[in-house]
Amino acid sequence: MKIVRSLSELRSAVRELPRPLGFVPTMGYFHEGHLSLMRASRKENRSTAVSLYVNPMQFGPQEDLTRYPRDEARDRRLAEEEGVDLLFIPTDEEMYPPEGRIPGSLQRTRVQVEGLSSIWEGASRPGHFDGVATVVLKLFHLVQPDVAYFGQKDYQQALVIRTLVRDLDVPVDIRVLPTVREPDGLAMSSRNAYLSPEERKAAPRLYQALRLGEDLIRKGERDPQAVIWQMESFLSKEPLCRLDYVTVADPETLLVPAEIRLPVVLLGAAWFGQARLIDNLIVR
Ligand code: AMP
User: What is the value of pTM for the model shown?
Assistant: First the structure.
């Protein structure tokens, strides 16, 4: 496995990789969710590139950028074991070179997917999806993959990226793979590392709330507000859980429908201590 840190090294390394090339963008601290994307890419392509970059542009000023979990040595080992061909680990200076005399400035160009970027996760994390869309488009230009792999775990992110790729005619196939979960249902996430043992015990409740919503819909409930209320009420019974939002939405527009007609997506975000966790479930 080749490890590169500069854009120029990346460009020449990419040219030597046999096509088709699969690409998995990540922020590192790998778990089975990340590894499942690498495995899919390995299976479906002749080469696989992975990026490991905690992108400051997608973090708000009060968010967890500085304490985001990192373990580069372990990530390198895991990527190598998965048969990854190229691991790109850029520095901030490489990705966003400081601009002449303007100290610490990031780049000026931002990619915004309107509408989809400002609701739910986007409402709670203003600017987050602009940061994601910008870095992903930049990475696509640098790596020039044939296929890129994302997790359903970040449902809204995957939708933002699909929309970006469609709207700007980016020649990359987007694949979205199922959420990998712990045995008790908790979606795997690098941020689970923030959970205390008590919070870890409480955290599966977010997924359980989504399952409860799914159950109600399968039993015939067609009023989204009724489903939302039941999920909220279920989450409010867990004292370690501070709900951000839980909702029923159209899978394409992410708007709450007047009446539930399948498919719908159930989306939720909640704090357990210092960890802000998200999850979702598609009801087909
Ligand atoms: P991150 O490092 O958290 O930015 O995630 C990198 C990629 O892995 C994104 O496409 C995520 O959606 C995906 N991912 C994260 N957690 C999971 C999971 N539990 N199951 C499947 N994919 C995941």
Answer: 0.97
φ, ψ (nearest 5 deg) of residue 68: -55, 130
pLDDT of residue 107: 78
Q: Which two tokens stand for residue 209?
A: 């709330």
Coil, strand or helix at 266: strand
Cross-strand pairs, 22: 48, 147
Spans of the chain, pLDDT less than 70: 100-106
- In short, whether 179's Cβ falls inside 6 Å of ligand 1 is yes
Q: Which residue has the tokens 């709900």?
A: 243
CB-based burial of residue 66 (10 Å sphere; 0-12 exposed, 13-18 middle, 19+ buried)? exposed
Angle between helices 155-167 and 128-143 (to 10 degrees): 60
- Of the candidates 31, 34, 128, 141, the residue annotated as catalytic is 34
CA–CA gap between residue 62 and residue 124 (Å, rounded): 12
71-92 pLDDT, tens digit each: 999 999 999 999 999 999 999 9
Phi, psi for 185 (deg, rounded to 5): 100, -20
Residue reference for tokens 């839980």: 246
Cα gap 158→149, rounded to integer Å: 9
For a substitution probing ligand 1, which of 55, 139, 140, 153 has the most ligand atoms within 8 Å of its CB?
153
Residues with Cβ within 8 Å of residue 66, at least 6 apart in sequence: none
CB 201 within 8 A of CB 185: no
Q: How far apart are CA 20 and CA 45, in angstroms?
A: 5
Looking at residue 97, its pLDDT comes to 86
By the 8 A CB rule, do 190 and 167 touch? no
H-only helix segments in 88-194 = 92-95, 121-124, 128-143, 155-167
